[in-house]
Amino acid sequence: MQIMSFNDLKDIVKSGDVIALAALSVSNLPVNVLKHIAKAHDEFGNIDDLTFMLANDISDYRGDGYDLDSFVSRGMIKRLIMSIIIGSPKTIEAIKDNELEAYIVPQGLLATHYRNSSNKFPNMISKIGLHTSVDPRYTGGKVNDMTKEDIVSLLEINGEEFLQYAFPKVDIALLRGTYADSEGNIYMNHEAHLGEGYSVALAAHQNGGKVIVQVKEVVQHGSFKPTEVFIPGELVDYVFINEDPKYHRQTFQHYYNPAISGEYKVLDMPEPANKFSIRKVILRRAAQYLSEGNVVSIGFGINNELSNLLVEEKVDDLVQLNIDTGVFGGIIGSGQNFGLNYNLDAKMRHEMTWDFIYNGGLDIAYLSFAEVDQFGNVNVSKYGDRMNGCGGFIDISQTVKKIIFSGTMVVGSQSTCNDKALVIEQEGHSKKFVEHVHNMDFNASYAKELGQEIYYVTERAVFQLTDEGLKLIEIAAGLDLEKDILANIAFQPIIDDELKVIDQNIYQDNWGGLQQCIKDNGSNY
Questions:
Q1: H or E segment and range at residue 43
Q2: How many CA atoms, within 13 angstroms, populate the side-chain half-sphere of residue 178?
Q3: What would the pLDDT profile of 337-394 be if each residue is shown by its tens digit?
């Protein structure tokens, strides 16, 4: 292990290198290392045509920060392989304008492939991604016209279909830890989540590449327990000591909050309860599908706020929440804090969390939708002018037993509640229930083959995926079936012969009915 300086970077990172990161937003992001690579490019001009691989979205969210946009605006990146991209507007525009190659692949596959990336396991082979946009019978994960090379192929083994993922070898691992000791061992004491940095380091090491880790400080060997080592020093080539706190933030909001890194528990809810709104109504109805003892996957979007609802309803102890970043239990942060928990039960490496998910660890998943079509297919990643990727949506939706898709029925609609009934004050401008989805992130036919139980919850109505198709099973009180529901759907759903009214008690400021609902479900679970 060597202590690295700015001048070293121009001789370590070279044009054409494949660079892998293991970060989420600014958490675990080695911002100061990225800054110095960008500055080395500005000064010496010899670091171009890079490939970046990252399982999660990264962004420093600061005008003077360094992230994907900083590299793309300098023309340094040739190709991106990722699962989700939200916080990098310049990069998104460059992808749309065919200025660089880009692939969107399932997050779990990308996070777990590093440890299998050796001569003994040359490629990943999995059923994850079949019959979605990742499948080469659709786009093979290619995002734009400039992206030509096939990195996903279809295989048949013993009469069963699989996808083979051929990811490039890692030349440079850019990672972050809290401390390094004098032997190069890396510790994650203050980090909000562990990430897949260990496996990324393995992949770079076996390929003869270099492992660079940004840390706050180098401490004497033996300062921490051996069991606290996250990356052993044998895998670490260079340590970069960060001396500027703004380049080593635990989260966007915090330089360091020990409650987020699991070093103590908070007694009071760290975020305010959700204000009464249509979003809260949707979450309440969706939460009614929970059973006591469920292990619950919380997805990005509206479901960010589900944890707040469970705390407010005093039922957070009845279920176990899971975020695929590797944190279990506790109170899930919403907004910019999503994916980072207070009062953790456990913290695991990112790729190990996918082991848990792939091996049936989840009972139910709460996912969002951008579009739902007449067959029950779902698009979550590419719609209108927006492109954000699938993240772990595909991995989870092809693994879990029960899925609740949540969202508003019409984009831009304005609704309120009056006397436990829903009132549409202003109709929206875009239908989310369409004839055909524009991107296949969830394939309903394949879900039927897998025997999954699927519901679609909106503020106006609830639908269920059946063998016959998408069935309308509930409608909100106060609405007209033709005017408020069917007129805002681009197809004719099956209508249940016993169409029910959604529980009216959720359409008011105070509810308090979730605990009994969950316990009743648990008795039948």
A1: helix 31-44
A2: 18
A3: 555 677 788 889 999 999 999 999 999 999 999 999 999 999 999 887 888 999 999 9
- Which two three-digit tokens encode residue 363? 């009972």
Residue 273's closest CA among 189, 319, 331, 202? 331
pTM of the model: 0.93
Burial grade of 276 (CB within 10 A; 0-12, 13-18, 19 or more): middle
Buried b (16+ CB within 10 A) or exposed e, 147-156: beeebbeeee
Paired tokens of 322: 């899971």
Is residue 131 within 8 A of residue 445, CB to CB? The reply is yes
Q: How far apart are CA 442 and CA 427, in angstroms?
A: 27
Provide the residue type at 348 as one letter: M
In this structure, how many other beta carbons lie within 10 angstroms of the beta carbon of residue 270? Answer: 16
Q: Where are the beta strands (DSSP E) in 158-294?
A: 160-165, 172-176, 179-181, 186-187, 210-215, 217-219, 229-231, 238-241
Token pair, residue 77, equals 């990146």
**pLDDT tens across 490-519, in order?**
999 999 999 999 999 999 999 999 999 999
Which residues, including other chains, have CB under 8 Å from residue 241's CB and lie 6 or more apart?
3, 214, 215, 216, 217, 218
Print the SS3 string covering 333-346. CCHHHCCCEECCCE
For residue 369, give the nearest of 393, 336, 392 by alpha carbon. 393
How far is C-alpha 281 from the chain's CA centre? Answer: 24
- Helical (H) or strand (E) element with 169: none
